[in-house]
Amino acid sequence: MPVQVELRYDTKDPYAVVAAFRTGRAGWVEWVYARDLLADGLIADAGDGDVRIRPAADDPEVVVIELSSPSGHAMFEASAQELADFLDRTYDVVVPGNEHLWVDVDEALTHLISTDLT
C-alpha cells in the first residue's frame, strides 16, 4: 500500500536525515537516522538496529527500508534513484566528511546540560 513519506535534511544536524511518514489523520511519524546509513543501504545491507536499509534482492531499482520499534515493525520499498537524488542534494549542502564543520559543540553541550537540569 502506498505511504506518503517526506525526506528532510537540515544542517543543524548534518549527520542525520529525517523520514516523516504520513499516518493518516493522526499526523506524521518521524524517524531520524544517519545519512551514511541511507547511503550505505543503497549499495548493500546496512544497519543493525531499529533502521535497516538494503537493495531489494529481486530489483536493483528498489531499496527496502525496515523500521522496528516497541510498537511494531514496518517494511517499505522506495525508488533507489529517488533516494540517491535526495542524497546528492544533501551532499550539495554539506559535503560528506565535512559534517563536523556544521556542528556547534558548545551549543550542543549547553542544550544537553540545560535539558538535564530540568
Automatic annotation (TrEMBL):
Q: List the keywords (alphabetical).
A: Cell cycle, Cell division, Septation, Sporulation
Pfam families associated with the record: SsgA (PF04686)
Q: Which InterPro entries match?
A: SsgB, SsgB_sf
Entry-linked Gene3D superfamilies = Sporulation-specific cell division protein SsgB (2.30.31.20)
For this UniProt entry, what is the primary localization, expressed as one broad class? other
Q: Where in the cell is it found?
A: Cell septum
User: Hey, which family's this protein in?
Assistant: Belongs to the SsgA family.
Protein name per its UniProtKB record:
Sporulation and cell division protein SsgA
Recorded source organism is Saccharothrix longispora
